[in-house]
Amino acid sequence: MMATPFQTEAWTEYGLGVLIILLRIFARWKIVGFNWQGDDYFAVLCLVFWTLELCMLELIGQNGTNIGITDEIGAALTPEEIAKFEFGSKCLLAGWNFYVTLIWCLKACILFFFSRITLATRQQKIVKWTAGLTILAYFGVVIVIWSHCTPVQRNWQVVPYPGDECTLAVANYLTLVVLNISTDMLIVSIPLPLLWAVKLSLKRKLAIGLLLCSGIFVMIAALLRCILSLKDIEGINVSTIWAIRETFVGIIAVNAACIRPLFSSAHWLRSSKGSSGANRKYTGSSDKYGHQLVTIGGGGQNADRSGFPSKRRYNKYNMTELDNNSSEEQIVKPSDSTPWSQNGGRNGSLTSKSSGQQGGIVVTTTYEVRPENREHRRSLSSLHDLMNSFAMHSSRFFVMVALTGTASNVLAAFDGSRFLWYKSPSTEWEQGALPIGNGRLGGTIWGGANETLTLNENSIWSGPIQDRTPPNALAALPVTRELFVAGKITEGGQLVLRNMTPTEKSERQFGYFGNLNFDFGHPNDLDNYIRWLDTRKGNTGVGYTYGGVNYTREFIASYPAGVLAARFKSSKEGALNLSASFSRLSNILVNVASTAGGVNSITMLGSSGQPLEENPILFTGQARFIAPGADISATDSTVSVTGATIIDVFFDAESNYRYSSQGDWEAEVKRKLDAASSQGYERLREDALADSTRLLERASIDLGKSPDGLASFPTDKRVALARNDSRDNELTTLVWNYGRHMLVAASRNTEADIDLPANLQGIWNNKTTAAWGGKYTININTEMNYWLAGQTNLIETQVPLFDLMKIANPRGKEMAKRMYGCDGTMFHHNLDLWGDPGATDNYTSSTMWPMGAAWLVQHMVDHYRFTGDKDFLSKVAYPYLIDVAMFYECYTFEHEGWRVTGPSLSPENNFIVPGNFSVAGRAEPMDIDIPMDNQLMHDVFSAVIEAADILEISDSDPDLIKAKEFLPLIKPAQIGSKGQILEWRYEYQEKDAAHRHISPLYSLHPGKQFSPLVNSTLSKAAEVLLDRRRAAGSGSTGWSRTWMINMYARAFRGADAWEEVKGWFATFPTANLWNTDNGKTFQIDGNYGFTSGITEMLLQSHADVVHILPALPAEAVPNGKATGLVARGNFVVDVEWKDGVFKSAKVVARIGGELRLRVGNGEVFLVDNEAWSGPIQTAAGDSLRIAPVNKVE
């Protein structure tokens, strides 16, 4: 197995540290043999405990620990896994002890050193007192480590969970913080009085004092980083590696002074007034302890045979070695000569008892040496060593973080139900880019060493408005109907294609703005790489280390400011450089960079590609760069930034879709970017995240914890595992959250006259033409985008859909008149940004379907049902209902006693023409009297009657009268020979029994006619067809699979719905959790449908009942809860279940009204601890507690 970057660096630095200590031992042996002092022994002990500590880290990493092993996780562990976790936990306990002993050994090294430099001074007592307190502090920490969790075996206990007090060891942290830092402060304070009194220039005192103070600052900063790291596990990863680095520096600092003489003969520190030279004579005498005194200016007894003095000399303390050019200080070396004593003479000189020689030290400088001078000169001679050694103080606390950080094998760096995160950049847009958006602007972040930000603005499509009304359609309509009635199916379909389809086959298609490319000059091989997206705040980011510098990037989409923004940072001042430029595949008119007027920007003007006289869509985008203290230049279309620490980027793009002139839309770009730049990134970020959080935190679900640490893996690995392992419930929750994030990012209601809804790709695309044109496909896909809006408390995100319907309405009325000769409005199965309702193309099975408006208008009706907004119902929804109803009153014709549609189809499906029709045996899509059409018309006219009742419209109103007359003329659903709902007017043979569209079951979901609570007969028939579809292999696209989740939930079959959840995970999500049509091509509807389907299992309200836990998959999700879900009637519902059984719920009435409740399969329940049956009358603000009958709250 390849070593991790952490292992590589840790053991490399360890190897270098061992070399340093071995060099110290060699240097000391060369000087004093084995006459070691206390700091020499403790230096070796540091090596021993450093080795043991790193070994413990390795064992912890290999085996894991009991940190985060809850009882639920523990229950799933094998005996072998438990044994490994127990062993790792024992290693963690040992690691704590080795770590504490290591840092106290480092303290001992410094204290022995201070003891030498303070010999015969008043500071000596302070050193001793400090040493005593330090020893007591050591035992205090060790006692806490062994006593904070008793009995001691609970420290490594795995099952049952021993509790946070044992695994998280907060007491260890707090005790170590207090005792470690307090003793460090005492140690640091020892040399300060000596520094103040020593005869040095003020400049040198300030320099050394500043170094001391900076050491204190580093120590405190290390502590603060540790505290922050404990709060943020991402910070622990960074602190771990820095802990190793700082420990390494500490080892070097403690030992560097001792090995210095091996590499240089230069002096370390000189006296401020002494004179020295190579011609000095050296004489020596001995003290009573057998140390020869080397005197300066005396006899030459210590000269070598050449007559020159020996170059190797030392004193008893041997921390500082001097050569013959060194300062004139007291030097002591071992000797068998006569001992010495100090006399109290006038000059305080030393006298040899044996020789009677005066001046054991003879100084040949112009100042006299007094005792206090000797104190300070001794301190001065070793002060440089003190400075080197002091660096080790800042490293100690991080070793502890390294232990716990490495041991956290169970707890993920990110909440597995909230964050998408990765250890490598995206290499394919559809497989890995992470999406953000503010409803109008979208951005996808690749996260490479050189970043690509793919940019979208939702009005950048492929061209101007078109008139695609077929000129011969109105005349051909009655002829085609006659052919279908006569059974000439193929002939009728061919006539439709020749006369009723547009000459321009397709609506306009969704494009993209382009890419904003950032070249940071970094290679692809980055250390400590992380990439993430927060589904609860809507921001995304990247972090990595390169060249020893940490780099971070954050991207946000600001709805309040109307811009996208990014911040790039480096941990080292001035280390951040970049070159930035726009790119696009085609149709760039202007692309220029500028620093004029202090505004650093790149501006690109693009086009949809048509000649200017054909009114193409034109758009302008600008990126602005702010980098305080950096050099910024512009060349052609590139902005270059060098020497930055922080770079802020702001982006906006506008088009002529919303503005009448280039001056207008470019002025809007300038206005937004001026405001954003003036506001600054931090405030803009604060407002943006607060806005997103306000929406995204309204609702939440918890489907229980994933076993075996699955939720701690990077998202791409979890997706790969979920292909075959369905136990990662937190991944399901993450996809639920992701769907809500992407709806908020792609669809927002602003003050603009026109907001566009989420299309087939939401708001994200990386090409000039998106897959399937990125259109508003309204025969299922656009509607699926918004199923989750009301139920997950994001109802306002649906308003842009109504803007599109408003745009399309006059076009639909024109199409109805010119193509069908009818009043009212209609759409076929696609719209573009212009609201073009024409038939899509020459693909027969998707062309002639005139029911788009009938489906879309249900979202207006549901908007009222969720909000109770009568003003909206009166001014928006009801008039639109009337327009849609008006068209079908005209368009339908009488056939076999019913008002039927035709030519039409069951979206994108085909049947085999029977033998009595022509052409027999052929696969054809078109017919008359399509059951799905009948279901949609039923809902339209039922909604007209419902709305008229709510609005108290007179029974004599002509529109209401027509609706009441028309409703009974709509053919009801028919049941086939196998007990299934029929898809066509007759029981035709299916060409594809597993077809992805489940159109004939519209009334199961999203409609309600087939609900078990409305019509049990039709419900059972719907289930038969649904089961047959699934058995044949339906759900062949991501969106189809998620529709089936919703279908089974509506049938109250939670286990089957969960099987469809598993089926979706098995094939369709990409590494970035995007839904795909076929496993490869991004199509967002399935993401939104997934979120809706999970919600439908927990709460339904379509059948005029607030139904709590209607389809709970109890075996797969035995425990969980949901908060903030919304039921029709504007009731907010929280619910919790345990062991697969309803536990409790709270229902809050936002506006008041009649509440009909149902729990599970019709279980009896209590309301506010009282038995209750029948409707409950609520007032605005009422809060009701719901509980099972066997539980009183």
Walkthrough of the structure:
With 1193 residues, the chain is α+β, with helices and mostly antiparallel strands. Among the domains are: 37-258; 420-462 and 513-697, Distorted Sandwich (Beta-galactosidase, Chain A, domain 5), CATH 2.70.98.50. It is built from 30 helices and 42 strands. Strands 6-11-12-13-14-21-18-17-16 form a 9-stranded antiparallel sheet, covered by helices on one side. Strands 7-8-9-10-15-20-19 form a 7-stranded antiparallel sheet. The protein has a 7-stranded antiparallel sheet with strand order 22-34-35-36-42-39-40. Strand 7 and strand 8 (441-445) form a beta hairpin. Helix 7 (170-189) packs antiparallel against helix 9 (202-231), helix 9 runs antiparallel to helix 10 (233-259) and helix 24 (870-891) packs across helix 26 (958-966). The protein starts with a helix and ends in a 5-residue tail after the last strand. Mean pLDDT is 84; it is low at 211-215, 232-239 and 264-412.
Q: What attributes characterize this protein structure?
A:
alpha+beta; Beta-galactosidase, Chain A, domain 5; 42 strands; 1193 residues; 17% strand
Enumerate the strands of the largest sheet in spatial order, edge to edge or round the barrel.
6-11-12-13-14-21-18-17-16
Structural class: alpha+beta
The average pLDDT is 84
Summarize the biggest pleated sheet. Answer: 9 strands, antiparallel
* CATH architectural type of the domain at 420-462 and 513-697: Distorted Sandwich
Cα-based radius of gyration, to the nearest Å: 40 Å
- Helix content estimate: 40-55%
Query: In terms of per-residue confidence, which ranges show pLDDT below 50 for 5 or more consecutive residues?
Result: 211-215, 232-239, 264-412
* Overall outline: globular
Number of strands: 42
User: Number of DSSP helices?
Assistant: 30
Region (Disordered): 323-362
Domain Alpha fucosidase A-like C-terminal: 1100-1161
Domain Rhodopsin: 23-264
Keywords: Hydrolase, Membrane, Transmembrane, Transmembrane helix
